[in-house]
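User: Fold this; tokens only.

Assistant: Input:
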Amino acid sequence: MLVRRTAALVAGIATAAGVALAWTSAPAQGAHAATRAHAVAAVGTAATPHRVAPTVATYPYARTDDPQQRLTATWDPARRAAPWVVTIHGGSWVKGRPADVQDAVDLFRAHGFQVFNLAYRLVAGGTQPTGVSGAEQRKDVLTALAWIRAHAADFGIDPGRGALYGSSAGGNLAALAGLAGDGGNGIRAIVSVAGVVQPSRLWDDVHGRNAGERATSSMTRLAGHARTAMACAYPAPNAACRKRWHAFDAASAISAHDPAVLLYQGLADRTVPHQMAEEFRRRLDRADVGGSLTLVPRLGHTQAVALDGGARQAAMLRFVRQRTAVSVPPALSRVSVTRVTRSLTNAVRPVLRVRVAVRGGGSTPSGAVTATVDGRRTTGRLVHGRTDLVLSRLTVGTHAVTVRYRGSPLLQPRSAAVDLHSHRVAPELVVRTRPGTLHAGRTAGRSLVVTTRSAAGRPTGARVTVRSGSRLLGTATVRSGRAVITLPAVAAGRHRWRVSFAGTATVAPARTIYVLTVRR
């Protein structure tokens, strides 16, 4: 196998060169040193760091001799079916090198991940006069992912337990590759650190289209590099150019089946506006994609927003570790959806109770459940395997409902189709006379007021009738839940009248007995 033939030689060379324990190497200088110091401190004090000397080797992942189409693998040859992370450097698509994300490589490796640090071809600009397009950079990432999965046995990884980490433009490429689904089921988590997830928004800022946002000189330069990567201006002058810009925005690829995304963004970032990450998070929420956004005050365009050596770094590791947890055997990953409530009244906020259970037990489902009724979708999150979905008002009759569990890192998605029977709401009838006390000889022309109340609101349009035995005493139409009937002459004594409400499309018919006493 590829790795086994070179493992011993590479391990010896790596150790001699001082890279076997990357966190003990000399600290970097300047701003990069601060970030690296945080990462080193966290690794050195972790409860269970992996201190085994890793094997480090560089491989071509494409069928070319281009030195930019290489990846450096850092792995423990003794591991089997291990989780893995691909790290992608930034540099405005025109510059940068894998060493820029070495802190992240060291961190993930120290916590049990096999790590692949990716180099990719650059767009023209920066340090080189010619280059490739943004689409070709994305293709490089996808090609590298396919190569890693193809050599899973060589590197001791589970091809279905991968994650992507990208910084700045690398965050854009990580999101494009992971959210588009081209990376296959192997990618379970994406971490974007100060990522340019929506490059077109930079040009909206440059042109003043986003209220409250002002483009800085750094944003303007980054927008120019994005235009170079697209080989056309923004706004796009033609359909082909619009298509390229659309595909360059990772938000355009978001779907409900995507892996979870963790975003880190500095509020003082003058290169990538924090509003970009906030809008991207809203787009993820609308598609019900898991993950979160962490906004960091006083920090700018730096990986320190994630690699702080403290709580944010720990949260990132926890996120990736949970999302790349060991796969559940197929026999345990079948999920059934049970609708507890089989019949609903047409209330203003009918509730559908859903329970998700794993056949065979062994896990409590988490994640999102969606119910689609009459083309309208309602989403809720499971708590201890259950959720109550508040539906829109339903018309009377039988409705076909599709209930879908979106799955989790450990459980497969599952759907169920059920019929939901919606009935008219039962009203309450309140009857009174006006005035409250009636006397014989003075009842003619007085009023009987019938008020109709229901969970569906105050009905309008139905008829209310009042009878004494078979004799019709009066009738009126309900307006905003109220009907007023003019009484005929009524003799003194105690009278039992039947008050009937005819019902509407949403409120059921109802009757009540009203006892009227007329004094002498």
